[in-house]
Automatic annotation (TrEMBL):
Source organism superkingdom: Bacteria
Protein name: Multiple sugar transport system permease protein
InterPro entries in alphabetical order: MetI-like, MetI-like_sf
Gene Ontology cellular component terms for the protein in this record: plasma membrane
Organism, scientific name: Nonomuraea soli
ABC transmembrane type-1 domain sequence ranges: 67-256
Family indicated by similarity: Belongs to the binding-protein-dependent transport system permease family.
Cellular localisation: Cell membrane
Length: 271
């Protein structure tokens, strides 16, 4: 029996990969060019090997402090998402209480509301709390989300109910069942949610630009956005900073992509 030919699919996938990698290649080329070379028409497709751009970006903005801010915010938001979303998912999947289904559907309705609609209310809350130009203003709105709850709920629902019953017979309360029995079994879902939250929080731009105006309290995305000038933008320095900012997330995704894909694919296996 002859094997099906797979080379056409590989050719198509390779072409798609090259198209997706083209912007990153252009970003790297421009980051190594001089400003006149980056503004040439037609464009110059070879680097000028201007390695000083990667040094100049640290002089243009407090990139080191912004990098630290981004790490702190991303770590705090990810930890909050994993804890709070897993608690809510456990309640919706394993605990029985009146109106659970209706409440869960209303909870998921939040996903259909554009995030921009919450900007003004969130800003008013941060102003009332005196949290403008602080890291907690970046952390608090992101520590819980409807998507994370839905994602982990699918994992909790896939586990057999006999685990809860056996633990209850042994005298375990709901908290002990959640923490000691079920949470270790949904590790793929936790990894998937953690990776998605890291990528989302690391690249978040709109909210950091709205709530923080002090360069020392900005994250990387907001700090790099401040490099855009009104009349002229130094694209080599801007692109160099973008590479520095995106490199940690790219490395994390390459290392953990199998867990991410497996976790996302599993969410549709059980309703």
């Amino acid at each position: 029996m002859s094997k099906p030919r797979t080379w056409p699919a590989h050719v198509i996938l390779a072409a798609g990969a090259l198209v997706m990698l083209a912007p990153f290649a252009w970003q790297l080329i421009v980051s190594l060019q001089t400003l006149p070379d980056s503004l040439r028409v037609p464009p110059k497709f070879t680097p000028s090997w201007q390695w000083s751009n990667f040094v100049d970006v640290f002089r243009s903005v407090p990139l080191g402090r912004q990098f630290l801010n981004t790490v702190v915010v991303t770590a705090a938001v990810t930890a909050g998402q994993l804890l709070l979303c897993s608690l809510a998912a456990f309640a919706f999947a394993r605990l029985r209480f009146p109106g659970r289904g209706i409440l869960f559907m209303a909870f998921l309705a939040v996903l259909m509301v554009p995030g921009e609609l919450f900007l003004i209310p969130r800003y008013e809350i941060m102003t009332g709390l005196g949290w403008l130009n602080t890291l907690q203003a970046l952390i608090a709105p992101g520590v819980f989300g409807a998507f994370g709850t839905f994602l982990l709920r699918q994992f909790f629902m896939s586990l057999p109910k006999e685990l809860d019953e056996a633990a209850s017979i042994d005298g375990a309360n709901p908290w002990q069942i959640y923490w000691h029995i079920l949470l270790p079994l949904v590790r793929p879902g936790l990894l998937a949610l953690g990776l998605l939250t890291v990528m989302w929080s690391w690249s978040s731009l709109l909210w950091p630009l709205v709530v923080n105006t002090d360069p020392e309290m900005m994250t990387l995305s907001a700090g790099l956005a401040s490099l855009r000038g009104q009349f002229l933008t130094n694209y080599p320095i801007l692109f160099a900073g973008s590479i520095v900012a995106s490199l940690p997330v790219i490395v994390l995704f390459v290392v953990m992509q199998r867990q991410l894909i497996a976790g996302i694919a599993f969410t549709g296996s059980k309703g």
